[in-house]
Each structure stands twice: as C-alpha cells, then as structure tokens.
Amino acid sequence: MIEWFDFDDPEYDALPVYILDENLTLLDGHTRAFVAYLGNVDSLRIQELDDSDVEELNLELYRECIDWCQEEGVTDLSDLVGRVVSHTTYETKWIDRCHSSEYYE
C-alpha cells in the first residue's frame, strides 16, 4: 500500500478539498493523506475546489458517506489507524455500500 510514498521526501499531488456544509471536506486522496499522516508529515498540500469544479459530483452521496464515517467515529486521519483493510475488503465494505445508496447514480 505505501511503497509509492517517499517518507524521506514526501511529494504528492495536491489533495482536492471542498467546503461542504461549512466543513472542509477531502474529496479524494484519503490513502495519500493517511500515509502522509503515518509518515508524520506536518502539513498537506491541498487544492480547494469551487462550485464549478464539483458540479459533476454527487454531493448528496458525499454527505451520506460523511454521515457513515461520523457514525463510525472517523472524523480525522488519526481515526483510520487500525482500520486499514485489503483492497477486496474495501471494495465490499465501502464501494458496494456506496453503490447501494439511494443517492448513487
């Protein structure tokens, strides 16, 4: 999972964020952000998106996903410690859940 991350010189694309319901929300790059956290990186480079950047996204589905995370107590990168799963488990526990959402198009 982390072979691509250079802990001595962490370099990665900016992580896309959007202000959703008055909260800065990470839209993608959760693995990159978590690995940077594990590497004790002090700050993350972000790219704040505006409304025109996200008009193609299903923000209702994002809201539901945020609710799921809050229900499980995952509100910060540190909350992912001890929750790393295989790609197969991720597919069945997260992606399949997203696909079964009433908001999934």
In a few lines, what is going on in this structure?
The chain has 105 residues and is α+β, with helices and mostly antiparallel strands. The protein has helices spanning 30-38, 51-54, 59-71, 87-99, and strands spanning 15-20, 23-26, 46-48. The chain has 4 helices and 3 strands.
Low-confidence stretches: none
Count of domain modules:
1
Overall 3D shape = globular
Terminal CA distance: 29 Å
The quaternary state of the protein chains shown equals single chain
Following the backbone from N to C, one meets helices and strands in this order, namely EEHEHHH
The helix/strand class is alpha+beta
What value does the Rg take, in angstroms?
A: 15 Å
Number of strands: 3
What portion of the residues fall into strands of 2 or more residues? Answer: 5-15%
Q: Order the strands across the largest sheet as they lie in space.
A: 2-1-3
How large is the count of helical segments?
4
Give the % helix.
25-40%
Query: What do the pLDDT scores average to?
Result: 88
Largest sheet: 3 strands, mixed
